[in-house]
Amino acid sequence: CQGAGSCATACPTGAISYGYPRLSDSLNRLRVMLQTYRDSGGSDAVLLFHDGEAGHEAVAAVAALLPEHVLPLAVEETGSVGMDTWLSALAYGAAAVILLGNSRTPPAVDNEIRSQLGTAHALLAGMGYSPDALLYTRQQGADLVATMNGVSLLVNKQPAGFAGLDEKRTVIRLAVDHLFDAAAIKRPLVTLPTNAPFGEVLLDQERCTLCLACVSQCPANALSAGNKTPQLGFIEANCVQCGLCCRTCPEDAIAISPRYLYDFPTRNTRRILYEEEPYPCIVCGKAFATRSVIENITKKMQGHALFQGAALQRIKMCEDCRVRDIYGDEGADAQ
Fold this sequence. Notes:
about 15% strand; about 325 residues; single chain; alpha/beta; 4-stranded parallel beta sheet; elongated; 3-stranded antiparallel beta sheet
């Protein structure tokens, strides 16, 4: 491990995190720094994230030409800060965030930064903010200075005060919620790029048999089963768009769609994607499966040599009645 941190910024759940500094420490540092800057009479702060080696050298070379409102901030690697930090900085009152890469930035880190920028830009545009308030550049010298002078500024008259947390998705939500509350445009949702870690699950009810294989594979508890009713529920706030549900579904009934619902209560409310009446055992009447599952299995087994007569009917029995029926037939044969 080289400590680049892009694995932590790429992880959609926060299962991987940067060890030092922790996310909460970085956020609290940002919040205090921006507040101190404002208390000192500063305005339109532009944060310039750069690494402590090549990035530091590039910034030092143009230090005398930097606009006064540009605040350089050294981090271990530019890729060690991600969307949670960028959006929080804007929520805390930064007018823009510039990420400075360089020729030594590994291609994988460069690609991850650009990927997350695509999602962050879509989130900002959906609220009516200029996406250019978040900028990634590998320029140096006069070109870098020109870029910093011409960067778009985001107006945030009421900086957020939420404390830094180590919960990645919670931090993103708090930052977006704050920016949304202050936004002039309040759309209910925005479509995100295909690699975004937020979105919904789409279900083809004609194909779904409620086998619930998708529930067993969902790593974020976005999909859930009903208690006593054959049912598939979904909480959009939990979905990380990993696609495991799509690959697990034996009926190819599931698709994912990246988007962001700005209203958190709606995003965090469980909604029912599909439910069915349970299928009752033809002997005792106990519900033991869904109607579509039993009908589907019966249809597929009708022409099978081992599922003729009583054997086909046993598909429609619960596990207890099926066993009793099998042993009852064996006893009758023995007599």
